[in-house]
Specification:
This protein is 19% helix and 29% strand. By secondary structure, it is of the alpha+beta class. A hairpin with a 7-residue loop joins strand 13 and strand 14.
Length: 514
């Protein structure tokens, strides 16, 4: 993906943004790249983009640091720190229009401004780069004692109708008929391989204080420019057009945990140790921290099965972890974890292990939303033998026609033959002669991904990578077989050299630009 950054409400002087990525095993931050330096503006809109490999199944932590440069030194410690922002690549990609806005932090007691990060998936281009040259004719006079000092700013349109800066020319001093130097630009940066994508070009008169005067603008496309390379374009013509493209669907996640064993005993997989997460908690956090980035409201229904509930000891295979059956939703993965720990103190764990009520619970929701606007992911964490195998197979066959996927994580040392059978990689699940329309189940035994040196962070990263790997293809297979295409996004904010917030270039196996 390609990522693009923009900032607002910053002190005037020279700004640069530094992108850091974090290693999975050692958690160290490493500098990935720096933007160009922009002078004399409160709202820098950086041209330089970062191209980042994007993996849906991994938690890819990012950090953006902003500095005010006091010299030409590359040593950041010699410059003024203005603030920073933390996020994941999935958080950016999963935001509406792949556009994320966050406040800058890092200086106690001070509002540091805002960062906007936009991501776009990069496509393959037959043409790698193009050489362009522009000139102006009879531009407006903007300087009181002279003519104008014009420069061009190029923007490519995004899928949500907004524009992302992709190039700036040099300033040509004191002329109304400028001829800018020829420049070479990658076609991916100019239009991302879409030759008909709208390209907006704005003309400004440069001012030393950063308050550049707007002269005019025009719209074109790569195809149009390639046809008319020798023609002049009238910059007085205001023919800007806006495009509307695809929006991201909402991913809905439902958590279900099986509750066998006494959590007060160290032998229990639910044992609440003060020193480390138990296997259930590690599985919840490993998958939840990644998948929550793609849920629009971050509210997750979290339920348990296989327990006796207070006050009468009724056995339940579908109860709310937060104790509220009317509203089982938890805020973010932290809310899910809190509800899980609280439930261990209030319920008495009890078998057997029934999967079909769990699957049918989510299927009822998925049945009511089949227009492609939502896709449901059910995470089941269990350590036991499935005691309703025939009913579970029937539920999976029925659910395969709905917008949902099922992730099963097996914890403990038991044999998971039934769960392996439900994973339809080798043979589709069938029930009473009917085969599942598509493979929607991914089963993973947690023990196969535990780090032998006891690095729980690495164990969780390995589990999440394996367990989430099939979700994108399952999601696309449902949408494509039903002819569902992404719907339109609402119009997004479009930054200008004098506007108020700021953005950095786009994040993009899938390459994304930030």
């Amino acid at each position: 993906f390609e990522t693009h950054c923009h900032f607002s409400f910053l002190p005037v002087f020279s700004k640069v943004c530094v992108l850091y990525t974090q290693g999975i095993a050692n958690r160290e931050w490493r500098e990935f790249g720096r933007t160009e330096v922009i002078d004399n503006t409160l709202n820098p809109d950086f041209v330089r983009k970062f191209v980042v490999d994007y993996f849906f199944e991994e938690r890819q932590n990012l950090r953006f640091d902003l500095y005010d440069l006091d010299s030409k030194s590359d040593n950041l410690s010699k410059h003024d720190f203005l603030g920073q922002a933390f996020c994941t690549l999935g958080e950016v990609v999963g935001s509406m229009g792949s556009r994320m806005e966050k406040p800058l932090i890092g200086i106690p007691g001070r509002k540091c401004g805002t960062i906007i990060v936009r991501a776009e998936e990069l496509s393959n281009c037959r043409v790698s780069s193009v050489m362009l040259q522009f000139c102006g004719n009879k531009l407006d006079k903007k300087d009181f004692f002279g003519k104008s000092d014009p420069f061009l700013v190029f923007y490519r349109s995004n899928e949500d109708g907004s524009f992302t800066i992709c190039h700036k020319t040099e300033v040509v001093k004191n002329t109304l008929d400028p001829v800018w130097q020829a420049f070479k630009i990658p076609v991916k940066a100019l239009c991302n391989g879409d030759y008909d994508r709208n390209i907006k070009v704005e003309v400004y008169d440069w001012d030393r204080d950063g308050g550049h005067d707007f002269i005019g603008q025009f719209s074109t496309s790569y195809r149009e420019m390639s046809r008319c390379q020798s023609q002049h374009t009238n910059t007085h013509t205001n023919c800007s057009t806006w495009t509307v493209g695809p929006a991201a669907q909402t991913c809905r996640v439902v958590f279900f945990c099986c509750f066998p064993g006494n959590p007060s005993q160290p032998t229990s997989l639910h044992y609440m140790s003060p020193y480390q997460l138990n296997a259930y908690a590690m599985a919840l956090r490993a998958v939840g921290e990644i998948i929550q980035d793609y849920d629009s409201d971050k509210m997750f229904p979290a339920l348990g099965f296989g327990a006796k509930l207070p006050p009468d000891g009724r056995v339940s295979h579908e109860f709310a972890l937060n104790g509220n059956p009317q509203n089982p939703y938890c805020s973010g993965i932290e809310g899910v974890m809190e509800a899980y720990y609280q439930s261990l103190k209030s319920v008495r764990l009890y078998g057997p292990t029934h999967f079909s009520p769990v699957i049918n619970h989510v299927a009822r929701y998925a049945q009511s939303v089949k227009d492609g606007s939502q896709y449901f992911i059910l995470l089941i964490i269990s350590d036991g033998v499935i005691t309703d195998m025939a009913q579970t197979k029937e539920s999976i066959v029925n659910a395969a026609t709905l917008p949902m996927s099922i992730i099963i994580v097996g914890v403990g040392s038991a044999e998971f033959n039934e769960m392996i059978e439900l994973d339809g990689d080798e043979e589709r699940v069938s029930s009473q002669g009917r085969f599942a329309e598509r493979d929607i189940v991914q089963f993973v035994p947690f023990r196969d991904y535990v780090d032998r040196r006891g690095n729980h962070i690495l164990s969780m990263a390995r589990l999440a990578k394996e367990v989430l790997a099939e979700i994108p293809d399952q999601f696309l297979s449902y949408m494509r077989t039903r002819g569902i295409k992404p719907g339109p996004c609402p119009p997004a904010y479009t930054p200008t050299p004098t506007s108020t917030p700021a953005v950095h270039p786009l994040l993009t196996r899938r390459v994304s630009r930030i």
